[in-house]
Amino acid sequence: MRVAIAGAGAVGRSIAGELLENGHEVLLIDKAPTAISVERVPLAEWLLADACEITSLDEAALQRCNVVIAATGDDKVNLVVSLLAKTEYGVPRVVARVNNPKNEWLFNESWGVDVAVSTPRLMSALVEEAVSVGDLVRLLRFSHGDANLVELTLPEESALAGTQVGDVQWPEDTSLVTIIRGTRVLTPTQEDSLEAGDELLFVAAQAREEQLEDLLSARRSDAVS
Questions:
Q1: How far apart, in whole angstroms, are the C-alpha atoms of residue 164 and residue 192?
Q2: How far apart are alpha carbons 39 and 175 in whole angstroms?
Q3: 116 has which bridge partners?
Q4: Could you count the other beta carbons within 10 Å of the beta carbon of residue 65?
Q5: pTM for this prediction
Q6: What is the spatial distance between Cα 114 and Cα 214, in angstroms, rounded to a whole number?
Q7: Which range (58-62, 75-79, 82-86, 158-162) has the least confidence?
Q8: Is 48 exposed, middle or buried (0-12, 13-18, 19+ CB in 10 A)?
Q9: Nearest to 103 by CA among 84, 115, 113, 118
Q10: Sequence-separated (6 or more) residues with CB below 8 Å from residue 10
Q11: Three-state SS string across the chain, please?
Q12: In this predicted model, what pLDDT tens digit does every residue of 137-192 receive, in sequence order?
């Protein structure tokens, strides 16, 4: 997979390093000469250019990229890069960094963003996740389909504790994708039972989050079919 990263600061370089370790091709783009530190990520390709300029993106051959990551510290730049990547080059997957949570509402499909990652929101979500049992925590927003990655730790008193996954009447537009049980990461099957203390990860439509939280947290006699 070929990935272009706009922004060669600490965030961009860290992402590049991880992707390279996983065997992907990575191109780092930055307009600041001081940011071009080839020795820090020697296996990456580097381009000294303004990622908001079409000529720069032509030089980067963005049409060959499977993923573009807009990882600069400027939300305006990240939006422009995302829009150009999607509309001018047809990049299948565009991931954008949100620096200011007040701008998060802009990072959607109308600006070419498939996945928006807000560091402040993610950090606060991880804090909530560490201390909250029975409360739904939003970890990540997906622009397409208005869906979110959400987490809930199943409380002791939940009516679903001891229930098989296949017996639960899940809300529409929700999917249980992972069960984290202690040190184990489980891909749920219909026969798997839910246990108190399980961390449950869902992809769910935002409109269904409250219904999902009620189902998982409350003592409900109608929680199972």
A1: 5
A2: 43
A3: 96, 141
A4: 24
A5: 0.64
A6: 28
A7: 158-162
A8: middle
A9: 118
A10: none
A11: CEEEEECCCHHHHHHHHHHHHCCCEEEEEECCHHHCCCCCCCCCEEEECCCCCHHHHHHCCHHHCCEEEECCCCHHHHHHHHHHHHHCCCCCEEEEEECCHHHHHHCCHHHCCCEEEEHHHHHHHHHHHHHCCCCCEEEEEECHHHEEEEEEECCCCCCCCCCEHHHECCCCCEEEEEEEECCEEECCCCCCECCCCCEEEEEEEHHHHHHHHHHHHCCCCCCEC
A12: 777 777 555 788 888 888 888 889 999 999 999 999 999 999 988 888 888 999 99
- Here the contacts of 187-193 (C-beta below 8 Å, separation 24 or greater) are 189/165, 190/164, 190/165, 190/166, 191/164, 191/165, 191/166, 192/164, 192/165, 193/162, 193/163, 193/164, 193/165
Residue 184: predicted pLDDT: 87
